[in-house]
Amino acid sequence: MVVVLLIFSLCLHLVAFYLITILVQRMNQMKGEQPIMDDETLAVAMEQYLEEIRHENDILIERIQSLELTSKAHDHKKKMTSDEAKLKEKETVETLKGDINPVKQQMKKSFDEVLLEAAPLPTSQIQDQVEQSTEAKILQLHQKGQKIEAIAKQLNLGKGEVELTINIFKKKEKGQ
Question: Transmembrane segments in this chain: where (predicted)?
């Protein structure tokens, strides 16, 4: 019985050794291969991903605004009597159907235009704190001539993130 167990153990050790040598060979082969995605392909993929997110955000904003319009109509309906409510509901539905295009146009407005239309806040109580975005800091340091590694170290970011931000900015400049 002991002999059988020793032979079985020896066979298992030989199989394990064989598998380890195969794994080492494959790892050495993979070290010599090109990466799956180069920086430019990665930058394009990230841009496409960001565009998809922006599109989804636009859809979400449209849905939120339509819900706000319907909730306002519902609140107003509760205040009126049932007969008045029925008449107003018909008017509201027709108004909402007519208001869809202006809502879409308002969605296309830039952030600055929306801010200009907003009611001004009392400035005596507001203390502005301006802080640059990470992307702005990266681009500012890059324009000053700092290397990617130095920027990444200074801002506690990964080298890939810094490279990606710079590449996206360069691509946008070329496109404009």
Answer: 6-24
